[in-house]
Amino acid sequence: MPSAALLSAKVRTELLPTDEDVRFYQEHGYWVGPVLFGADEVAELAEHQDRVYQGIHETGREPWRGGWKFKENRPNEIRKTDNSHWSDRTIRKAVLDATIGAMAAKLHGVDVVRLWHDQLLYKPSGGGQTGNVGWHQDYGYWRACKEPNLTTVTLAVNANTPENGVIESMPGSHKRGLLHASDFFNQDLDGMQKKIEAESGQELRTVPMTLQAGQVSFHHCLTIHGSRANMTETPRRSIAIHLMCGTVHRNINGKHMNTELVDLKDGDPFVGEHFPVLYEA
Ligand SMILES: O=C(O)CCC(=O)C(=O)O
Ligand SMILES: [Fe+2]
């Protein structure tokens, strides 16, 4: 049985960011929020994450293009599966959590928050550099959206720490606009750092967004971030929940998998069944 909190669509207002937290997010481009899910709930999420990897799709629908597949030559690479909420109801409830939506609304000062897509993430131990996520800005992949008004929530399914390769963000980097040198898939973090520093003229300094199991962090879609190797004996588990803050419109010049789901003209809004509402004021 899913636990009560996962079934609840009610906003837990006591957990929302304070005005000071909102100022922090707007200034630094990230915010580490509270624990939202208890031990039983994260244990259930971990179990359902493993089911997705085993190809068990309780709704009968696969994640995007089937999701992560094992590769002989990269057995411990980071696993990335898009739209696991299509396949699994427990993951779907967590991804569409109203409190998470209300938090994003408050951080961005908007009254509606819709799902852009989710990403189920798993960094195995022993992966070395193949576990890395290159320094990047999410909006670099989301130019199909006219407005850079999106945020990414990281929901930690177990503890995410510097030792197991937690996401690190560069404070204030969301204010500098989009960089060319931004690449999720480039696992040479030192090489990427040199490129970003050359382009931005600033030193790349990052802070770890350390999380307990069940805790959430937020990073703005223009914040530079990435993650290092998992040096521990256990996998690092998380779900990235990518959210549109306010109504976001199609930029016909940008490419993204989501544009295959809807037939939009330039300037049309990303709304409707493929982009469920988490929160509306
Ligand atoms: O999980 C990671 O290490 C990186 C994920 C990421 O880039 C994101 O959630 O935006
Ligand atoms: Fe990212």
Structure characterization notes:
The chain is α+β, with helices and mostly antiparallel strands and 281 residues long. The chain has a single domain (29-64, 74-280), classed as Sandwich (Jelly Rolls), CATH 2.60.120.620. The protein contains six helices and eleven strands. The protein has helices at 4-7, 19-28, 39-53, 89-95, 98-108, 189-200, and strands spanning 30-35, 79-82, 112-123, 133-136, 150-156, 167-169, 207-208, 215-220, 225-227, 236-245, 277-280. Strands 1, 2, 3, 5, 8, 10 and 11 form a seven-stranded antiparallel sheet that branches. A four-stranded antiparallel sheet has the order 4-9-6-7, with helices on one face. It starts with a helix and ends with a strand. Fe (ii) ion is lined by residues 136, 138, 152, 225.
Features:
281 residues; seven-stranded antiparallel sheet; binds 2-oxoglutaric acid; four-stranded antiparallel sheet; Jelly Rolls; binds fe (ii) ion; alpha+beta
Can you write the helix and strand succession as a string? HHEHEHHEEEEHEEEEE
Residues in helices, as a percent range: 10-25%
Largest sheet: 7 strands, antiparallel
Give the N-to-C terminal Cα separation.
30 Å
What's the total number of strands?
Answer: 11
* CATH hierarchy class name: Mainly Beta
Q: Give the CA-based shape.
A: globular
What class, by secondary structure content? alpha+beta
What is Rg?
A: 18 Å
CATH architecture: Sandwich
Would you identify the regions where 5 or more consecutive residues have pLDDT less than 50?
1-8
Bound small molecules, by name, code or SMILES, are: 2-oxoglutaric acid, fe (ii) ion
Individual helix count: 6
**Overall pLDDT metric:** 96
Number of domains: 1
Strand residue content: 15-25%
CATH superfamily label = q2cbj1_9rhob like domain
CATH topology: Jelly Rolls
